[in-house]
Amino acid sequence: MKMQIVENKERKKIESYLAQVGKASINQIAEATGLSWATVKKHLEYLEGIGRVHGEHLGNSIIYFFNGNGKWQKRVHLNSTHILFLDTFISPFGEPFIRIKEVKKKGDKWVTFGEVMITKERIEDVKEFLETIKRHIDIYSAKIDSR
Known about the structure:
By secondary structure, this protein is an alpha+beta fold. It is built from 4 helices and 7 strands; from the N terminus they run H-E-H-H-E-E-E-E-E-E-H. It has one domain: Winged helix-like DNA-binding domain superfamily/Winged helix DNA-binding domain (Arc Repressor Mutant, subunit A), CATH 1.10.10.10.
């Protein structure tokens, strides 16, 4: 079962603004869109949960970054309430990353359970490890089952 994404004009306004500027705080988004701080926060939590934006703590603020139009995103549905998001983004320091984000549905909200950031220089290491695991996963499973 695929995750259903509900369209909303306020969220679209927030996404459009972030797409134009790339990154902004809740206060900046609220001011630019004419939405209340609480409304922006609620929608940013939703957008972050579905992988459309991500927030990073910088000092005392959270800066939200637009994750693009989906060209460099993939959702891996582990089941109907458990998803891995794979996406790319540029850090505030200008460094490209691949992010693997785990989200689970709790009630009517999607909750982030963890994230892994992989730098461009380490992509090959991760790829090689995954290839090795793919070749040997059945052997590993057999050892676990024989216990």
